[in-house]
Specification:
Number of helices of chain A: 10
Helix content of chain A: over 70%
Number of strands of chain A: 0
Low-confidence stretches of chain A: 1-8
Oligomer: homodimer
Largest interface: A-B, 61 and 61 residues
DNA sequence: CAAGATTAATCAATCGATTGATTCAGTCAA
DNA sequence: TTGACTGAATCAATCGATTGATTAATCTTG
């Protein structure tokens, strides 16, 4: 018989962070108590102050943990093509499709797979809407690669657009997807379908079609209407 | 000299509700305390229990107050045309443009005009993302006219689409606008432009163009790209 | 290598502050 | 007189934070 695992000390920190992500996502910063978080992590509430300096520090560290884990996933996509390079337009078109797919799957990470991942994205979504004073720097760093990737692709697909137009286009593309994720619970209430969306692949296809047409990319348009 | 206004007694209830909207919007349900709300309304905190039965009752009544005041504004738009009636398609096209304009101006109601209106929409936005158990019925009733208006127009503009597609299209149109409103503070941080959007009219035009193209409406497409 | 010293990690217990709620004597207009 | 309201006091509960003690791990030194 193996003895009970020695409960690696450094592991407690990590358990606290994961419990914090779950609890903050469920109840918000004010709604979540450090006692509840500690209990969830099977640790003592005093450790929140010991490891993170307090509730605020734990919150900051939880957001940092999310940011560090997610930031790398965007980088796995092939880099956007150089503007002006041969075939850049076609590559950018495919790049946009790949980006939207990655963005959706990032956001819709199934709760069954990783409860913490799902809570993490819910937490980020809430922070974007209503940033806690502590979170702004972490959040900006988290969002920047997503923004810059879309902007780089848009500069190729819409070389005529000025910077403000590019920003608006970026926000429309990301906005429909983010709103979809952030309001999923409400949408399910509204539509009366508790397991909407049934077909994630169809949803990705929809976002791709809607966005590419919305951008005014001619290639995406002709075949869609009788 | 006129004596100080007699402070209409029934008015206290209303002052409490408005103070509640402001405070709940700023700090969330858990972050706001009834003492702070009462102080803002220049009333006694005991009146929260007296008038509304407690904090939860005040919250519910605040949401109801918002819902009752906003719901009428959608109805001022001309009704959507009958499917199949002559020129229904053109009327629906104009109807969609009017709807998007109304939706944007509703959401972006300038804080300078009515601080309470702006806070109310921020509160609704937060509730959509993370509904308080108390708010679900009020919220559904609030959102339904907005949803049904878009769906009615879409059934004319996209008669080929099945119900799930119609829902996705509706969510994409509203989503980009809602995300824009809900994340405005964050967007200003990201773009580095503290008074974005400078031009509300250009923004409305953008949402209209992006949405109509995204819908696959041929009329909206040809002229936009060189 | 072993004994002693130091540090890190954790705990139960408790702190003062604040929470939502309640009570109650008093004001004031109808 | 009655109902709407006020202001102040107070309640139990809970909050985040802190304390002092204890154990486990690591390092120092003879």
């Amino acid at each position: 018989m193996t003895p009970p695992p020695p409960e690696l000390p450094q592991d407690t920190r990590h358990r606290l962070i994961e419990a914090a992500i779950l609890t903050f996502a469920e109840k918000g910063y004010d709604g979540a108590g450090i006692r509840e978080i500690a209990q969830r992590a099977k640790a003592n509430s005093a450790l929140v102050t010991y490891h993170f300096g307090g509730k605020e520090g734990l919150y900051r560290e939880a957001l940092r943990h999310i940011s560090a884990r997610k930031a790398s996933e965007v980088a796995t996509l092939p880099p956007p093509p150089e503007p002006g390079s041969p075939g850049a337009r076609e590559v950018a078109l495919q790049g946009m499709k790949a980006y939207i797919r990655a963005f959706v799957t990032d956001l819709m990470s199934c709760p069954a797979e990783s409860e913490v991942d799902a809570a993490a994205m819910a937490l980020i979504g809430r922070e974007i809407q209503m940033p806690h004073p502590v979170s702004a720097p972490v959040l900006l760093e988290f969002a920047r690669p997503y923004m810059e990737r879309v902007l780089a692709l848009l500069r190729i697909l819409r070389p005529d657009a000025d910077p403000e137009t590019l920003l608006r286009l970026t926000l429309s593309i990301q906005g429909q997807i983010l709103h979809f994720r952030n309001s999923l619970g409400f949408i399910r209430l509204l539509s009366g379908d508790p397991d909407f969306p049934k077909d994630l692949e169809a949803l990705i296809q929809h976002f791709t079609d809607f966005s590419l047409r919305g951008l005014g990319v001619p290639e995406a348009f002709p075949q869609t209407r009788p």
